[in-house]
Amino acid sequence: MDRELYASTISSAVEYFEGYETLALILNVSVDDLRRWAEGKSRPPVDVFLKIVDLSIAAGQRDAAAVVTPQARRSA
User: Fold this and answer.
1) For residue 27, what are the CA distances in angstroms to 3, 31, 68?
2) Which of 6, 21, 36, 50 has a CB 3.0–4.6 Å from the CB of 41, allowing a cystine?
3) What's the DSSP call for residue 28?
4) Residue 60 binned pLDDT confidence (cut-offs 50, 70, 90)
5) Cβ-contact 63, 21 below 8 angstroms
6) Treating both helix axes as pointing N-terminal to C-terminal, what angle do 46-75 and 20-27 enclose, rounded to 10 degrees?
7) What angle do CA 25, 58, 11 make, to 5 degrees?
8) DSSP H or E stretch at residue 11
């Protein structure tokens, strides 16, 4: 996988979790490492990257549910 994909995925997760500090705490990594990964300067360990992907998917599902649930209630 190329660094741009890693960096983009990590940057999106940082935005969703409203900052490096929160995501670093969740992942149990240093803020400096997380910044380097988000900037494409290095790659995270595979297990950490997969956790970021899982968190991003879960976050996306929560966002989708927040939109779909009120629409479903209105149409019922």
Assistant:
1) 19, 10, 29
2) 36
3) T
4) confident
5) no
6) 110
7) 55
8) helix 3-16
